[in-house]
Task: inverse folding
């Protein structure tokens, strides 16, 4: 598959600059790019709702942000990219923009330095993966140009076909080599080795033989051990320029888990030093994909957000009334306040 429309999140960091440059000059030089900067606001605690006015002029900083984004695009080698400024949570807004423009791919840069909760996985790239079923590209700071070696992580699940198609398209454009890798559970490999390893490599060869463009540039590789560790070890040893993988390792399709990210995907996107392409659903699948639209996850997300807004308003009204009575909700013990908040939130 080819990537024609790509949404890229920009926070004006070195990582996002490298991501735009790598996509525009190496990954998809002919694609239409949409550069999006998301303005976020600090979440106002409920007990400050009646004391702090967080509403501001929504257009106050856009006159400088739009020229800044345009200049950023030119500096990164993407002068024809469309730019937009949105407000909200970055992962939510990037996923929403991808739906609006029918993008094939969402791209985000990944900084090498993580602070605070980001050290434990609370990063925008990880959240984007959970918000959309479209393909997601994570580009670390300092990504090299001109990929020459691609690692395709091939499981026996249904997503492996899409992984091989993506690797075929990309490597044909780059004239790159492909390592098709499958990791065997150590309990199986040790009991039947080396026959199991030969059978696995034979299976990989048959799978890749269906892709004509891969026939003369692919190497079938069977590794023993946990999948994430096998991929990371091989990528580091061979200096892979890109890892292509699926988002989960289910053998059958599950509509309720389309937006979920498996542990192997989380590990690879968190630690690998090269760009990672997490292949998502095809356009034909997205047309009937209820998860990404509003029937399930988006409906629940909106309902939860609306409940929280009503809860905070109720809490603010209660605190304002306390100004006349001298009683404030914060006079309650913390455990009592927490339990009361849960009950109120569940009532709406």
Result:
């Amino acid at each position: 598959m080819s990537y024609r429309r790509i949404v890229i999140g920009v926070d004006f960091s070195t990582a996002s600059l490298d991501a735009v440059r790598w996509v525009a000059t190496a990954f998809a030089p002919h694609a239409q790019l949409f550069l999006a900067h998301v303005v976020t606001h600090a979440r106002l605690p409920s007990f400050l709702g009646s004391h702090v006015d967080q509403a501001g002029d929504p257009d106050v900083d856009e006159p400088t942000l739009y020229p800044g984004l345009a200049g950023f695009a030119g500096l990164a080698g993407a002068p024809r990219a469309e730019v937009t400024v949105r407000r909200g949570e970055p992962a939510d807004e990037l996923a929403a923009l991808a739906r609006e423009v029918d993008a094939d791919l969402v791209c985000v840069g990944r900084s090498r330095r993580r602070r605070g909760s980001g050290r434990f996985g609370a990063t925008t790239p990880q959240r984007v993966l959970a918000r959309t079923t479209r393909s997601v590209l994570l580009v670390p700071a300092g990504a090299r140009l001109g990929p020459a070696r691609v690692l395709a992580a091939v499981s026996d699940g249904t997503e492996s076909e899409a992984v091989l198609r993506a690797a075929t398209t990309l490597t044909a454009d780059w004239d790159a080599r492909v390592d098709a890798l499958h990791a065997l559970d150590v309990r199986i490999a040790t009991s039947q080795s080396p026959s199991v390893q030969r059978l696995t490599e034979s299976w990989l060869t048959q799978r890749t033989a269906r892709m004509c463009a891969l026939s003369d540039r692919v190497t079938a590789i069977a590794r023993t051990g946990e999948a994430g560790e096998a991929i990371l070890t091989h990528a580091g040893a061979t200096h892979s320029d890109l890892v292509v993988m699926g988002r989960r390792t289910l053998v059958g399709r599950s509509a309720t888990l389309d937006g979920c990210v498996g542990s192997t995907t989380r590990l690879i996107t968190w630690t690998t030093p090269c760009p990672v392409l997490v292949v998502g659903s095809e356009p034909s699948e997205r047309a009937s994909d209820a998860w990404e639209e509003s029937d399930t996850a988006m409906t629940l997300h909106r309902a939860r957000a609306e409940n929280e807004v009503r809860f905070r308003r109720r809490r603010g009204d209660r605190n304002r009334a306390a100004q006349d009575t001298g009683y404030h909700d914060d006079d309650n013990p913390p455990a009592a306040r927490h339990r009361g908040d849960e009950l109120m939130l569940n009532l709406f």
Remarks:
- The two ends are 45 Å apart (CA to CA).
- The first helix runs from residue 14 to 27.
